[in-house]
Amino acid sequence: MNRLAKLLTELLPITINEAINPLITNIATDSRQITPGGLFICINGYTVDGHDYINQAIKNGAAAILAERSFPDCPVPVITVPDTKRLAGQVANRFYDQPSQKMRVYGVTGTNGKTTTTKLAYDLFRAAGIKAGMISTVGARIDEELIETPNTTPEAIILHRLLYEMVEQGVTDCIIEVSSHALAEGRVEGVSFHSAAFTNLTHDHLDYHHSMEDYAKTKALLFQQVAASNGRAIVLNREDGWSRVMREAAPLQPVIWYTTQPHRTSQIAVEWLTDTVNVRIDETTTRVPTALLGEFNAANLAAAMGLLRAGDANLYTLIRHIPELELPKGRLERLDWAPCEIYIDYAHTPDGLEKCLQALTSSGESLSVVLSAAGERDRTKRAEMGRIASKYCEHIIATVHDARTENPDQIIEELIVDIPREHLVGCHTSRHEALVQAAHLAHEGKRIVIVGKGHDEVERIGTKTIPFNEKHILLAELERLSEGESVV
């Protein structure tokens, strides 16, 4: 707990009258989470403006308000600032006593591979006997405890609270998945980063960033933050030309380069050889078994090892743990139903889709796909994803996920525009119906991959969020088929 003036000292060029300097016992951007003595920070979001909920926050006990506009008749102090989103992280950092400075915090950013790299790094830290934490798309972990999080990178106040809880539980190293939206919106403001890794930059979110150059500059904000924190190192992908932009953002920090090409100059190389990998650390190469599918996961493993090197872990002793590593749920996850071969993957970008399909067809076996695109998101990638699916897949079932308020028929039309009709075996505005058809194909002996949602267990339809578990739907239909009950 802190007095309001102490929380804002050095953050704002203002003087707070001692007569209106309340003790702040909690902070929140959601008025429903305010309790007596709280500081309510008004955030103007995509669909909700926190300024509209000031009265509710005061009713719940708010002792002060941080806002972007004044409220002259407000019964509690109102501090006005130009940008509450960015200030929220700085205030939360002070409220929770600067938790990121009490451990080593590692950021992971890029278009694809963030979640996998984050989890692999977390698992390797724990294999090294280090008490580690993780904050990612698939939730936050404090050692073995799983905590659900609403976004790839939680909002700033939740993020700093999680870091505080990790410090309280003795965590020394925490890996955070950092999205471009989080960087643009200031969700990691106030975090002191020990180091950060860049996976890759490919076509995605251009509805938000407008160009690949702007997208790259947003990603580079993480590396600027490493530099501002006087961080140990940055971990960059030798195979991705956008690494140059990340390097320019932190020109004085040491670089740990990684690659999947064994003869390229780098400190770490991981070469994928189907069911084994060659791991080169400096000049020493070791071959070890792996359960990780695809060259792209070799790159993710190399990036994770780069973070551990920045944390001074002994990589040579950790090589023996590589065979134990598993992908996060929803990343090339095989459904537990023999003899059917059904995979679920999060792939939702052209590059991510191609890498997924390459991995599953590398043996020459045929593959069918449930292909989808999200509503109210980057429309420019839809046709490209259709073309990629046509290149690798025998059969394509087209559908949607998270249509929101966009017309599902329009989404599908843009997705299938370049798909040859001989490949297209179904179009469903209902994702449930698409999964049922996929179960039938699998029951007939087809290899299936379902892309787009991965671990996600909700559907966003209109303005509602409803439960939606793809694995449960598939297993239920396969059970009915096995009993001869299903009808199409």
UniProtKB/TrEMBL annotation:
Residues binding UDP-N-acetyl-alpha-D-muramoyl-L-alanyl-D-glutamate, per UniProt:
31, 151-153, 179, 187
- Which subcellular locations apply to this protein? Cytoplasm
The prosthetic group or cofactor this protein requires is:
Mg(2+)
Q: Which residues form a coiled coil?
A: none
The answer to whether UniProt assigns keyword Cell division to this entry is yes
Write out the PTM section of this UniProt entry: Carboxylation is probably crucial for Mg(2+) binding and, consequently, for the gamma-phosphate positioning of ATP.
A single GO molecular function term of this UniProt record: UDP-N-acetylmuramoylalanyl-D-glutamate-2,6-diaminopimelate ligase activity
- The protein's Enzyme Commission number: 6.3.2.-
Domain (Mur ligase central) ranges: 108-307
Keywords assigned by UniProt, alphabetized? ATP-binding, Cell cycle, Cell division, Cell shape, Cell wall biogenesis/degradation, Cytoplasm, Ligase, Magnesium, Nucleotide-binding, Peptidoglycan synthesis
Which InterPro entries has this protein been placed in?
A: Mur-like_cat_sf (IPR036565), Mur_ligase_C (IPR004101), Mur_ligase_C_dom_sf (IPR036615), Mur_ligase_cen (IPR013221), Mur_ligase_N (IPR000713), MurE/MurF_N (IPR035911), UDP-N-AcMur-Glu-dNH2Pim_ligase (IPR005761)
Q: Binding residues for ATP, per the UniProt record?
A: 110-116
Query: Would you indicate the residue range of the signal peptide?
Result: none
| Sequence ranges assigned to domain Mur ligase N-terminal catalytic in this UniProt record | 24-96
What superkingdom heads the lineage? Bacteria
What pathway or pathways are given for this protein in its record? Answer: Cell wall biogenesis; peptidoglycan biosynthesis
Give residue numbers for the modification (N6-carboxylysine).
219
Q: Which residues form the Mur ligase C-terminal domain?
A: 330-454
The record's Pfam families line, in alphabetical order, gives: Mur_ligase, Mur_ligase_C, Mur_ligase_M
Question: Could you say which protein family the record assigns here?
Answer: Belongs to the MurCDEF family. MurE subfamily.
Described function = Catalyzes the addition of an amino acid to the nucleotide precursor UDP-N-acetylmuramoyl-L-alanyl-D-glutamate (UMAG) in the biosynthesis of bacterial cell-wall peptidoglycan.
- Please report the name of this protein according to its UniProt entry: UDP-N-acetylmuramyl-tripeptide synthetase
Organism placement in taxonomy: Bacteria, Bacillati, Bacillota, Bacilli, Bacillales
